[in-house]
Amino acid sequence: MGAVTPLGNTVQEFWDGLVAGRSGIAPMTLCDPSAYPCQIAGEVKGFDPGGYVNPREARRMARFSQLALASAQMAVDDSGLDLEREDHERIGVLLGTGIGSLPTTQEICQEMLSKGAMKINPFFIPMILPNMASANVARIFGAKGYNSTVITACAASNQAIGEASEAIRRGVVDIVLTGGTEASISELGLSGFCILKALSTRNEEPDKASRPFDAGRDGFVPAEGSAILILESLEHALDRGATILAEVAGFGTSCDAFHAVQPDETGEGAARAIRWALADAETPPETIDYINAHGTSTQLNDAIETMAIKTVFGERAYKVPISSTKSMVGHALGGAGALEAVACVKSILDGVIHPTVNQERPDPSCDLDYVPNVARQQRVDVVLSNSFGFGGQNTCTVFRRYAE
């Protein structure tokens, strides 16, 4: 695995921050937020793309592609793969992203208006297209096999991981670099989300602004980041003597078919995705040891996700630990599910469930065990990871401890 996050630019830094309950949210620096109600973000700090791709290449890529390349390089290094010895036609790339590059879009539009239409950066289009993170990763690493991009908003990278596992099941690839990336912090993005009243305005206390499932929640905190996981067929991993971290056991995806931005108020769409993920993994609800929640810190999402979990798990919903990674890093949109997948795998490996921070005021509509404020030591064998996006697009993935 590899990760570039608001809590650190390696998997271990990210995980250590989560377990410590440390927030990576701070005053926004990637753009001037002074004209907007939300002025805080979960930004990647101290990132130098030159450490992962030559500076000339980096200048021709948007930040979301740069972050993906960095986390992909870390993941390849961590996996022990010698890509030169692999059949490149059997290596795929499948990433999720929600938007592409809003910062570049804003910058080039301003450039066009000030300098003229024929004076803009000639790399504008290939910089902003959402598929370019997958394309750039494939090009740099020579992955000539199955390639795709999932753009199902905030469910994108969770779904990408599930779809990558399906590509391996189908036998079209042996290895997939999968996960997601997002880097959309910009005035243009702020305008869009602020006008929807979706963002937190708790600017005076950035570290307390993201508070999923808490009665005082007032919106999500925008964030950026990338995480990449190396998926392989079991046969291929065993043949090369790989260290297997966990198994992608199953996934499910559904649509609310309800509203452009609001989740189905009954929670049925999310519940369907959870049920289908459990069915695909051939694991009943009682085997789930931990749920990594979508947990955005918005009024509707947190209450409806709680409702969906109760619908599927019944009374056992009150006994399953649940936590939100977004409470510490904010909402990385299409990249969020990949960051959370890393947290799920680390929970299995380390026997620790990271907390949901900023749990101060109980909400009667959110009455489950959200692992409040302090990490919990517990053996974790099977994890459910939830991601729900605008348009009512829901994806859930089941990760399981690997047993020989």
Automatic annotation (TrEMBL):
An annotated GO cellular component: cytosol
Record flagged with keyword Lipid metabolism: yes
InterPro entries: 3-oxoacyl-ACP_synth-2, Beta-ketoacyl_synthase, Ketoacyl_synth_AS, Ketoacyl_synth_C, Ketoacyl_synth_N, PKS_Beta-ketoAc_synthase_dom, Thiolase-like
Gene Ontology terms, MF aspect: 3-oxoacyl-[acyl-carrier-protein] synthase activity
Coiled coil spans: none
GO biological process, alphabetically ordered: fatty acid biosynthetic process
Keyword RNA-binding listed: no
Name the record gives this protein: 3-oxoacyl-[acyl-carrier-protein] synthase
Species in which this protein is naturally found: Geodia barretti (Barrett's horny sponge)
Lineage: Eukaryota, Metazoa, Porifera, Demospongiae, Heteroscleromorpha
